[in-house]
Design a protein that fits this description.
With about 170 residues, the chain is an alpha+beta fold. It is about 35% helix and about 35% strand. Strands 1-2-3-4-5 form a five-stranded antiparallel beta sheet, covered by helices on one side. Strands 6-7-8 form a three-stranded antiparallel beta sheet, covered by helices on one side.
Length: about 170
């Protein structure tokens, strides 16, 4: 009797197909998860950088004006008013979530961008008697999160102290 040989046809069996499909699904899922995590990390970095840039600019501007002022006129709450060498005033204030500066009695200009909100600004005169003057600055700032996404949430409070050169 003659044996009949079956020809092997190229292709996949059902088990091979299921295994390959499962592997591809796992790999694609991992790629999607990594992509989502990278995008979330990018958003967190952007928020912190924006807050950092705004805080650095505002505090350096305020510190520069304090160092160059002749005297402190008002320092309390969210307002600081300084008098410079020629008698002109420089005023810092918190106005609708933005830190503003007005020089020479002019129009107030925002020092912070629209991407951040300053929720608290506190100036405290911590000067001792017979000293030129020292101001403590406390500022709480957060990123404007219109979409209310958790990766864009970030708030931080910054503290610094600066003295007149006197």
């Amino acid at each position: 009797m003659k044996k009949i040989k079956k020809k092997k046809t190229p292709g996949f069996t059902l088990i091979e197909f299921v295994i390959y499909s499962a592997l591809i699904t796992i790999i694609v899922g991992m790629i999607v998860l990594v992509s989502v995590n990278v995008m979330g990390a990018r958003a967190r970095i952007i928020t912190r950088e924006e807050i950092s840039h705004n805080v650095r600019f505002v505090l350096e501007t305020i510190r520069h004006e304090i160092r160059n002022a002749q005297e402190i006129d008002t320092a309390g709450g969210s307002q600081l008013q300084l008098i410079d060498a020629v008698g002109d005033t420089v005023t810092f204030d918190l106005d609708e979530g933005a830190v503003t500066m007005a020089k020479f009695g002019g129009t107030a200009v925002a020092l912070t961008s629209d991407l951040v909100n300053v929720s608290s600004l506190q100036f405290t005169d911590v000067s001792y008697e017979d000293t030129p003057g020292t101001i403590k600055i406390e500022m709480t700032i957060n990123f404007v999160n219109d979409l209310e996404r958790p990766e864009w949430e970030f708030e931080k409070t910054f503290y610094t102290t600066e003295s007149l050169r006197g």
